[in-house]
Amino acid sequence: MSGVSGAGLRLLRERAGIGLRAVARRSRGSVEISDSHLSRVERGHRPVTPAVLAAYERCLGMRITTRTVAEALADPGGADRADRAQF
After folding, report:
1. pTM, 2 dp
2. Which residues are CB-contacts of 48 (< 8 A; sequence separation ≥ 6)?
3. Residue 57 pLDDT greater than 80, yes or no
4. What was the pLDDT predicted at 83?
């Protein structure tokens, strides 16, 4: 697949301040993906499929690659923004 992990998808989603339900709602098209399934993907219990990756890309409005995730991990200010978004 793309090499993007579920944890990487979670990082990008949290940095954007978007909930799992929003990603699940955007996934609805030809294939519906539930928020519980996305949660399992983010925790590594299910694989990142093309449909899952496409749902995150639509919701976040960006192309997601291993480089995108690596850049997010390297951005120390982004972690602070993600922590604040949880409160």
Report:
1. 0.80
2. 1, 2, 4, 5, 6, 9, 41
3. yes
4. 43
In angstroms, the CA 6 to CA 69 distance is: 11
Q: Which of 82, 15, 36, 28 is nearest to 55 (CA)?
A: 28
Instruction: Decide: 78 and 15 in contact? Cβ < 8 Å.
Output: yes
Spacing of C-alpha 70 from chain mean position: 13
In tens, the pLDDT along 4-41 reads: 999 999 999 999 999 999 898 887 665 789 999 999 99
- CA-based R_g, the chain, Å: 12
Cβ atoms of residues 27 and 55 within 8 Å = yes
Among candidate residues 15, 20, 17, 16, the one with its CA nearest the CA of residue 79: 15
For residue 59, give the nearest of 76, 38, 75, 82 by alpha carbon.
38
Q: Which DSSP category does 62 fall into?
A: S
